[in-house]
Each structure stands twice: as C-alpha cells, then as structure tokens.
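Q: I'm teaching a short session on how sequence maps to structure, and I want students to see two examples side by side rather than one. Could you give me a first protein with its sequence written out and its structure tokens following it? Keep the formatting plain so it prints cleanly on a handout.
A: Of course. Example one:
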Amino acid sequence: MHPFVMIGERINPGFAGSRVLFETQDIAGIQRLAKRQADAGASCLNVNAGERAMTDPRFLVEIIRAIQQVVDIPLSFDFPRLDVQEICLDAYDRERARGGKPIINSISEGRPELLELLRIAPCRVMIMASERMEDGEVVANHSAREVHATAARVSKQLRDVHGLQNEDMFVDVSLATFAADDHGRTHTALGAIGLVRADPGMRHIHIMGGLTNIGLMLPPREFDGVKLQHAIERAFVTLALPLGLDTVLATPWLDYSPLPEGHPVLAAFRELIELEGLEFLHRLRRFLRPSGTA
C-alpha cells in the first residue's frame, strides 16, 4: 500500500524497456505494462508517447484505446501541445475508467492555450508551478514563495473562470535531479509543498512530484541494501509527506516508504538540501566516495 496517490509513470519511451514497446509497436506489451502498474496500486496512468505522438495521431489513439481495454483507472495525458491533447481527450472513454476524469499534464501560465481543453470535456489538471509569466515572458521560479504564488494564481483562475474544484487540481512542484542540484531546487520544492498545504484557498488541492527525476545521474551504489537512486527518492518522500505531499508520479511496484531515522542517505540528504553551489557539490562528492562514509 502506497502512502500517497500513485500515478504510474512507465508508459513513456523515456524508459528503456518502454521505448522498445513503442519502437516495435508492441500494443500487447503496452497493455501488459498498463495492467502491471494498475495491479501494483496505481490510481492513474500517465501516458507519454514521445515524439511519435506529434506525428502519428492514429498510433496515439490506438495506444489509449488499448490501455483502456485492460485497465479501468483514469489516464493522464503528458503532452505540451493543444492539438495532441485534443486527440487524447477525444479517444478517452470515461465509462471505461469508471467515470474517472482524464488528467491534463500539464497546465501553466506559459501554456495558456491548454486551458481551451477544459471546454472539450471535464478534466482534472496538473499545474506546472515551476514557471510564471512576467512582462510577457516565461520566467523560471527559484523560490518556494514564487512556486506557491504561481500555483495560487493558476488554481484561482481554474476555479473562477473554468469552474474546477480544488480536488481536481494537482500542483506539481517539479523535482530536479539531485546529483546536479547546486541551486537548492529540492529545498525549494519542499518549501513550496509546505506553503501550498498551509494556504486556506488551496485546501484539498493535491501536491505532487515526479520522483524518478530526483534520482537521475546518481552512481549505481547501494546503502543498506537499497540502491542509491531509490534511497534518494525515499529520502525526499520521508521529508515531503509530513509537509503535505500526497501524490507522486513514479513506478508503482517500487517501495517508496519513508526511510528510517539514522539511515545514512536520509542523514546526508537532510544536510545536502541546505547547501548550494560549491558547498553542495563538495559535500555530495564526499558522500559518494566509495567508502560510503558521510
């Protein structure tokens, strides 16, 4: 049992095993992957067909319909283009998802055209709060307050203009690769989770993050029998759950339970998220020494 809402991430050619399924048009293989995620506890499946979604709409429709033949949970459509999202929503059969609304992944101030999708069908939405509009330009958010302020503005627009309920929104705090996090983005994400959860106007909004992102680029080492990449993901969960994280985009059959107090990765993680620049890089390098000593 996962300690949060699990959105299955594996229908995505960014994963080597999944990429083969897309390259060979193995629809049965994609169906097995969808069912495995649902059986492992996913409440929703993210669907990302990569570049092919932009050039082969018939294949995209075939994938969506095939997935819905074998699972009865909602789908999240992970495409930045309005025309591709329209194809997805048209192909989606809400009855096959037991009435569950599809999820648009994702809406942001820099993608205002995607709001048109809410006129096509009732949807839930992910809010990409890592960027904002400023003087007509898309600007990256670098502080927890900026992330929270952006999420608050977008969620208010979704409520006031488009009639969405807070329960139908997911604020994505956009997790960064920890191995290169010398600008404190993990610390920013944790701070943003706390601010969003404490905001009375955002009560019942879901707060989420893509866990796989945080463990990328780390060396293939183990600590107490846990792979380092996965241990870092669990370290983040350990700190984020009490702050209000309630949803993750991740691999459903993996264990994301909090790490126990005293675990060396959790101890190092707590120290590292407070550092930036060369201090962060030097401390991370010491932690990753073959001896594993922190």
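Q: Perfect. Now a second example for contrast.
A: Example two:
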Amino acid sequence: MLRFISLFFVLSLAFGVMGQDLFTRKKKALVQYRTYRRGGWMFAPGITYMWGRKPKNEERDITQKGRIAVYAEVGRFQIFKDEGNIFNYFDYSLAYKRLSGIEDFAGNKAVFKQNYILGNFNINNIWQRGDYTFIQNSLGVNLDYKFSEKYESNGSGSGNTGRTLFSLHYKIGYGIKARGNLFIIPSIEVPILNVMEWEKGKSTYGIFSSRYKPIIFSIRFAFLRKRNMMSCPDNGLSPEDKKKQDMHLMGQ
C-alpha cells in the first residue's frame, strides 16, 4: 500500500512538471477564460462493483463475487488561480452509491446490499494530451453514511462495516472537451486507505467471511459557467495573457 501511495505522488509530481502552463503551451487552451469562469457544476452517473478477495489464512473453500450496482453524483468544481502547479482544480460533491456482492461457501450463497449517502472532496491534476483531450489524476477523501443494508444468508454472518466510513481514494480518468464549456471525463475510483473503520491500513471492507474492495466507474459531465461580460476584463485572461498584459503596461 505504501509503495502504491509513493508511486502515485511520484507520478503526480511528474504530471505537475509536464502540466505547468498546460492550458496554453503549444496546444489549444482547454479553458477560454475570456468567455468562461473558473468553475461550475458537474454531475456523474456510474456503477459500482465489489471486487472480492479471500482473507489471508482462510483455509475454507469460499468464493467471492461482486455485483454491479448504481452510483450517482452531483457537485461543483473550481480551477485554482493561475491553474495551480501540481494540482490544477478541486471539486466537492454529494453522491449516492449501492455496494453489493455475493459470498459462496459450500453451495450456500450469502448476498449483501448496502446503500450510502456520501460526500466527496478531490484535488485533481490535468495532463493535457491534445487540443481536446487530457488525463486526470485525482486524490481525494470520502465520508460515507450507510442509511440502509440487507443481508440474505443461511448463516448468522453479516457485514462488519459501521454506519459511518471515512476513506482516502485515488481516481484516474480520461477527459474530453466536448464543447467550449463541457468536459466529459470517464473515471475509475478505488480506495487506498480506510481511516474509519480502521483495519490496520486496509482498503477493503470485511463482509461475511470475506473482504471486498469497492470500485466506482463513473462518467463526469462538468460545465463551466459563462462569464459576466460586464466584469473586469483582467479576470478573463489566462496566466500567459495576463503576463503579456502586465509587461505591456509596464512598458508604457
């Protein structure tokens, strides 16, 4: 796990170096600041899948199967001033997710279904790959509240997750600028550390006699807000254009 986190930060630093002035260097700017503000609304439909794993030292013949369930998210995002350095924008949102899976032991199937309301916060790195495409790496936190659950089992086993969960997660996506103010970003999200319930640094949940890792596949639709044309013109400049304007004014 520590190696994974270390690798993530090394990649983020590399993306940050490559991403300096990424909106203006040798490619078309992803954001036209004269027309659009630095933030807006977003929503993301998606699905979840519980990747099952057999616990260590478990000798019984137990198999785990994930089930596809629903995910839906709505929130806002904001680009950092001067487009940031390593991380270029942040976002926050509310979401609903269902987590579901099956454990099979000697032909007896146990099914679980858990429903959560959650809050998300992410900081995001943008690595522009073309005039209209980019790779997005995100590091974030999520606070989940489990408002309902159902277990179907012949035995007495159940989930050992509490009502409230707090986790760190990593997300990677491939972004497409569909039009001036619309960005579409398919993404995959995985937890990297459970803080609450704390389980010795694991990123999986213990349910029945097995462990499961929740994976979220989503498609983010992010809409930039249009700029008020009566606002100060300087606010609509990209960092490079602002530098040029400042140098011009100093030379007068």
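Q: What should students look for in example two?
A: Point them to this: The helical segments are 2-19, 239-251. Also worth mentioning: The chain is about 10% helix and 60% strand.
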